[in-house]
Amino acid sequence: MSVWVDLQGQGPVVEQLRRAAQSSTPTHAWLLTGPPGSGRSNAALAFAAALVCEREQLAERGCGVCKACHTTLSGTNADVRFIATEKTTITIEEARELVRKAHDSPSSSRWRVMIVGDADRMAERTTNVLLKAIEEPPPRTIWILCAPSPADVLVTIRSRCRTLTLRVPPVEDVAALLVRRDGIEPGLALHAARAAQSHIGIARRLASDAGARERRDAIVRLPFSLRDVSAAVRAAGSLLELAQAEAASSNEERDVEEKANLLRSLGAPETGMLPPPMRAQVRALEEDQKRRSKRSVTDQLDRALTDLLSFYRDVLVLQLAAQGGSGVGHSSAEASHGGALELVNESLRGDLAEFAARGRPEATLARMDSINAVRRRLTTTNVAPLLALEAMAVSLL
């Protein structure tokens, strides 16, 4: 099975990466960009696997069968280093370690591949650590950076990389992947893919976790409860609680497993006090988990706001269709908009149509701008999340 099989709807990008992997002199630095859910990290790992693939035949590189492909995709290949962060930023120490590793010769492959999965989460000082290594890479070293857009990376970096942009795959392709790879029932897979707006990872979680689907549904229905300022404040609190619950659900089991694995590897006693050196390592792990939890809540808030934005996106689509004289029914609207009336929250179509009829597109656009402004504030400033959400909720009245 080819390493490219899960890159749904990315034909042109896959073809360029495939040709590069077959070349004896591939470009030494790449920047893979695309919105969340487009599969940047998956594309980077597939490209890395094809670069180090053991097959001699050029056309077969990226076979997905050999040991090099398997270990790359599982994150254990000694010649492929993947760095991402579950904290707020990639630290300068992590960047320096990556540069040191980049100067090692490949142990068993043609290339040493260095992947930075969150190139947009580096401060300028940290990015400058990578600059010289990317500008003048060691022999047989290839860099792959991933970011939402070229603008998220310093111009000094992106000018030295070959940039490829991935697109969000069609809903149908994501649903087909969930059915084929994860054994999800087709109807549920399509519902999850549409609700996730083609984000493959989120679609998989929605399809496999009923609790995640319930939390998303509660978020999308929040605008129906916005009657006055008091209701807006309550809705903001609910939004934060739902995001925190989703973050806790994602991290809790993992945190417990990580601590158990650490204690096991340290040979910790089953009862009684831990020796001081062990306590220090456990504290370090718990601090890392707290930092990861903070970022996780921020990421889940951003996702919750994206889901909330989908509500107003659907409302806007229905309002524009009505203004065009096509009404809100399937056939007439599709005839007028070339089939573009498909809603993200299709199960709420009736309620959304009633909501849309009570407002105008200009007001809906203003509400969408308000949500996007809060998304930017939450990810770029130290604003108190609840205060920002309350101000946003009041602006949605």
UniProtKB/TrEMBL annotation:
**InterPro entries from the UniProt entry:** AAA+_ATPase, DNA_Rep/Repair_Clamp_Loader, P-loop_NTPase
Q: Which SMART domains match?
A: AAA
Q: A GO term (biological process) for this protein?
A: DNA-templated DNA replication
**Signal peptide range in chain numbering:** none
- Which stretches make up the AAA+ ATPase domain? 26-169
NCBIfam families per the UniProt record, alphabetical? PRK07940.1
The protein depicted here goes by the name DNA polymerase III subunit delta
